[in-house]
Amino acid sequence: MNAGTRGLRGSSVAILESLYQHRLLSTRQVHDLHTPKTTARFTQETLVELRAAGLVDRVIRPGGLGVWFLSLSGIETVEEIPNRVETRRTSISPERAAGPLQAHTLAVNDVGVGFVRLARERGEEFGPFGWRHEIAHPLTLPGKRQERLIADAILTYQADEKGASRFHYRFIEVDRANRPVDDLSAQIGRYGRLYRRPAEGRYAAAHWTRRYRVFPNVIVVLAGRPRPNLERRRRTLLALCRADADLAQSPELQVFVCLLPELEQDGPAATIFRTVAKPDRPVDWLGRCRVGQGERP
């Protein structure tokens, strides 16, 4: 423990590291991630103590809900923790924390929280640091006009399947209905391009094999509108993705679409997802249907 974290309880240090990685967290998200066995009051008091120490700051959402982020001192404190591999983080101003960044970042983190809850219920491995934000992937070879695909997040979930561990990787795309749905489908189609992107030089394998053991499937989470609007948007998105040439050339890549309210209420193990391949069949995040529906369990 360095000088900046000396005197802080373990949960406070973890909260600082979590804010460093996830940029913005609501009080509820902090509670779910780091102090789920305590009261919400305890979580609030811990955050207030960190703010009094000058390590975090907050902005207030409509309804009086707090959204927390690291101060410059908090960032420096986290970066002094030994053996950190995270790249350096720039500070967030209160104006930026209260701006358009807020709703999108909180929605991405709500997805992560849903998987943390699932892992706790099942005794599997996925904690507060199981997802990383805005991971860039080159789509073009060197020497050509550079084009990148930036995933909203990438998560790594370690499941226990029949006594053996298995890693599941997922790209996360959160859509808050603030762009045309055909733009969203084009963004999803770019994952097909990433899947097929060849490696440069003497490497024969696809470029993605340098970073991932298996190519992550894509989870698209729709948010930001009433449920009937989101359901209509999902149907349209699935239809557009079925017609997308890049996805058609990458049939091994699976795309799952769900609604954030359903993910928050029922969790990723519920059959709340629709896939591009079989849009009328509800499945869980691993592509499994309910037993008794004529599909595999």
The N- to C-terminal Cα distance equals 46 Å
Molecular shape? globular
Order of helices and strands: HEHHEEHHHEEEHEHHEHE
Sequence of strands across the biggest β-sheet: 4-5-6-7-8-9
If you compute it from the alpha carbons, what radius of gyration comes out, rounded to the nearest whole angstrom? 20 Å
Structure classification: alpha+beta
- Report the sheet with the most strands, covering strand number, pairing sense and barrel closure: 6 strands, mixed
Number of helices: 10
Question: Beta-strand percentage?
Answer: 15-25%
Number of beta strands:
9
Helix content: 25-40%
Low-confidence stretches: 291-297
Mean pLDDT: 89
What labels would you give this structure?
alpha+beta; 297 residues; 20% strand; 3-stranded antiparallel β-sheet; single chain
Structure description:
- By secondary structure, the chain is α+β, with helices and mostly antiparallel strands.
- 38% of the residues lie in helices and 20% in strands.
- The protein has 10 helices and 9 strands.
- It has helices spanning 10-22, 27-34, 40-52, 72-79, 94-97, 100-122, 181-196, 227-242, 245-248, 260-266; strands at residues 25-26, 56-60, 66-70, 131-138, 148-161, 164-175, 217-222, 255-259, 274-275.
- The strands form 2 sheets. The chain has a 6-stranded mixed β-sheet with strand order 4-5-6-7-8-9. A 3-stranded antiparallel β-sheet has the order 1-3-2, with helices on both faces.
- Strand 2 (56-60) and strand 3 (66-70) form a beta hairpin.
- It is globular, with a radius of gyration of 20 Å.
- Mean pLDDT is 89; it is low at 291-297.
